[in-house]
Amino acid sequence: MKPTLVVLAAGMGSRYGGLKQMDEFGPNGETIIDYSIYDAIRAGFGKVVFIIRDSFKEAFVDFFSKKLEGKIEVEFVSQELYKLPASFKCPEDRIKPWGTAHAVMMASEVVKEPFLVINADDYYGVEAYQVAADFFMQHPDDKKGKKLYNVIGYKLVNTLSEFGTVNRGVCKGDADGNLVSIEECKKIGWDDQGKISFPGSDGTPRFLQENDIVSMNMWGFYPSYFEFFDREFSKFLELNIDDLTSEYYIPDLIDLLIAEGEADVKILSSDSNWFGVTYREDKPFVVEKLSGMIANGVYPRDLWD
Questions:
Q1: In 15, 115, 118, 205, which residue has its Cα 20 to 30 A from 166's Cα atom?
Q2: Contacts from 178-185 at CB under 8 Å and sequence distance 24+?
Q3: How many domains is the chain built from?
Q4: Which one is predicted more confidently, 14 or 300?
Q5: For all residues of the chain together, what is the average pLDDT?
Q6: 269 in any annotated domain
Q7: Residues in CB range of 159: below 8 A, 6 or more apart
Q8: Is residue 170 in some structural domain?
Q9: Widest CA span of the chain, in angstroms?
Q10: CA-CA distance, 158 to 173, in Å (whole number)?
Q11: Residue 248: left (phi > 0), alpha (psi -120 to 50), or beta?
Q12: Alpha carbon distance 272, 250 (integer Å)
């Protein structure tokens, strides 16, 4: 059974100033998503599921359906605030999405196989998809016993932006390469002394190392994820539904499953170079990196022709 690629593309790009998911970076108008899907197809993925918003669904379908026809199966599903467990109703003045864990859940009706989750605006590299595909080949399902998931890890220093702070999930692993915990650290950046830091809960700086391993939201799951999410998200909503800024992230669920012994998560390392577009100023760098890879034969100049 071929794995599926789940692309989280429902963000509104507030810091970027527009829908960066559909911004053009390649020589023929290719988006970052185009290169991600191309890499996934080469690694043996058989389907791509876009998690989007109803407000721009038509534009997404028009942009991707035709170019991907005959190359990979495609599904489009929407993440909307009202899509909650039956016993809950979204507050009328809620604007903020419910978080990445909720976004992944939107794929439950169309995903019945192993799946890899990625962000639409991140470039993960050719090798990362092959590493994930190899994992799924070695572990075709998790129908029995303790669940086994995976996360692709990157060195922190290779994931920072020159144009502002970033949020990263800092991974702690054990001697067997299993994830022990993941801490969501916000507003990470270089300080005046050339050190990497972020503000702690008390406002004082907390420091990180360049080689610390971080998650860039590239996760390998099985359909059992959806069962766990249903259970835990309901508990989350009981406590937080009236908090209009509350979100439920993938690491929140993963930390719980690890702590309760319900799942192991392998940290899969990738030597691929990661880059992404958090800010508009990141775009020239991304265009340059992709142009260099095209010149070196990593990608054809016209990706889909």
A1: 115
A2: 178/264, 178/265, 178/266, 178/267, 179/151, 179/254, 179/258, 179/264, 179/265, 179/266, 179/267, 180/258, 181/255, 181/258, 182/151, 182/215, 182/251, 182/254, 182/255, 183/251, 184/249, 184/251
A3: 1
A4: 300
A5: 92
A6: yes
A7: 166, 168, 214, 216, 274, 276
A8: yes
A9: 54
A10: 19
A11: beta
A12: 23
In a domain, 177, yes or no: yes
**Facing residues of 155 across strands?**
213
Q: What is the pTM of this model?
A: 0.92
Burial level of 82, CB count in 10 A (0-12/13-18/19+)? exposed
For residues 7-20, average pLDDT: 65
Query: Whose CA is closest to 77, among 109, 114, 121?
Result: 109
Q: What is the predicted pLDDT for the residue at 12?
A: 52
DSSP-assigned states of every residue in 231-300: HHHHHHHHHHTT-TT----HHHHHHHHHHTTSEEEEEEE--SPPEE-SSGGGHHHHHHHHHHHHHTTSS-
What's the whole-number mean pLDDT along residues 230-237?
A: 96
Range of the structural domain that residue 209 is part of: 4-295
Which residues are CB-neighbours of 79 under 8 A, at least 6 positions away? Answer: 10, 51, 52, 53, 97, 98, 102, 103, 106
pLDDT single digits (tens) 58-95: 988 999 999 999 999 999 999 999 999 989 999 999 99
The bridge status of strand 196-199 relative to strand 47-52 is unpaired
Element (H, E) at 51: strand 47-52
Confidence of residue 17 (pLDDT cuts 50, 70, 90): very low
Task: List the CATH number of the domain containing 223.
Answer: 3.90.550.10
How far is the C-alpha of 216 from the C-alpha of 90, rounded, in Å? 29
Residue with tokens 């994830």: 179
| Residue labelled with tokens 């890879």 | 293
The one-letter amino acid code at 207 reads F
Tell me if 303 is assigned to some domain: no
